Amino acid sequence: MTRGALVAWLRELDADELAEVLRRRPDAVAPPAPADLTQLAVRLSARAGLDEVVARLPLPALQVVEALARLGVPAERTALAAALERAPGDAALDATLRVLAQRALVWPDGDRLWAPEYLVVDANARRPPEEPFEPVPPGPPLAPADRTAIRAAAVEAATELLERVGAFLGEAAEHPLAQRSDGGVAARELTRLGAGPLHAELVLAAGLLGPDGLRLRPTAAYGGFAGAPAAERLTRLLEAWWTGPALRQVVVRVLNDLPPDTALPDPGALAPLVRWTAPLPARRPDDLAATVADVVAEGEVLGVCALGGISPLGRALADGRVAEVAAKLLPEPPTDLRVRTVASVVLSDDVALLDEVAAALRLRRLAPTVAGSARSAPDTITALRAAGYAALSGDDVVSVRRNRPAVDAGELARRLSVPSPRPASPLEQIQQRAPQLRSDQARLLADAVEHGTPVWIRYVDAAGRTSDRVIENAELAGSVIEAFCRLRRDDRAFTLDKIVAVARPRSE
Known about the structure:
By secondary structure, this protein is an alpha+beta fold. It comes from Dactylosporangium sucinum.
């Protein structure tokens, strides 16, 4: 009944409350947008989306999920409070439940609490370290910080990084580098060049260095990178670092949330707060304090951190504004006169769209509505279409527009909140399209559609062959049922009039 309970709860939310859920669960509103609350509930319960959002939960939220898994859902609110050794009206527990409800991970139904079936079934695999429920984050020891000094040190570090990476790639262009069996740069090459493993990781992750037979040499992207402004080069390297191990993002976000004008005398002392903030990414290192200190040290090499505090570049990474901030910190000298080749230009009246496209394809902005590409028009069009944009070309000029408009959470919430004429129920649709089923079988199949529960079916395919299947997460789509088939271990479509029998799975 989990899916039906979720639909009922979503129906009770007003438009603002529903929009809050949608903003925190972008996985559920990717185009095409859900047409109704039932479709939205299916997406909110999908395994991939749940895995992604749960990975970002703080420790107390995971402890609540684990407790619900032990209790079983629906669970009484008082039973949950007792399991966590909290009073029934505990304000901290209420706040944690709100965090989970805003993500449609746990929701109330009177005095009972529900959660998606997959979430509680898989909770043991995600189990955070067992300890008393503690909703208050630990506070690391902090010292006063000079933001001007941090900014200056960060700019100096970023400038040195660009110089060392430039020299590293220049040497690799002259003398291709030996590579390890796993594709990395051989240690002897790093020693010879005076470079560190982080420099090698960055240029590989940024697509600037790649294999050429048994050696590593700069890729085709190196030419554009070498001639780009310092801010663009730094942005590319920072984004490559940011998309590495998940703990990097956690540490930077935790630093970003510390009180302003503070710094860490001991970066390793941040480990308890990192573990509280994101216990799943933080559970892997045996020595979390050393790992956190290593991440901060990497950040200091990149200019993300400096003098024990977060820099403007670090805050920009956390806020998704790194290109903008890098351009302010590393402006181009005004006396430089540069000539660059542009193979094609990309036009769009939508400035925000062109910002998005330029970042995705690393185009050069020439004007608010014009960007230059080092690729030919056909190659640029191919790249744009592969990225999901619609593009047209003429005389080396490419016009771009969105294939689908971006989903606005507020607008979608208002549309989904408007009562619509009652559609035919799953049972009515099944009875109409599968008259061969007995009434009890039709009800069982309808129940599986409404709640996503497993059900056994006997199916006759187009060739007349009969097979028995157990399906789950079923959805009605006209005259067919789309569901995950345990026999084929994949999603399959079953025509309703070809289903000749329905029963509960034998193991259920």
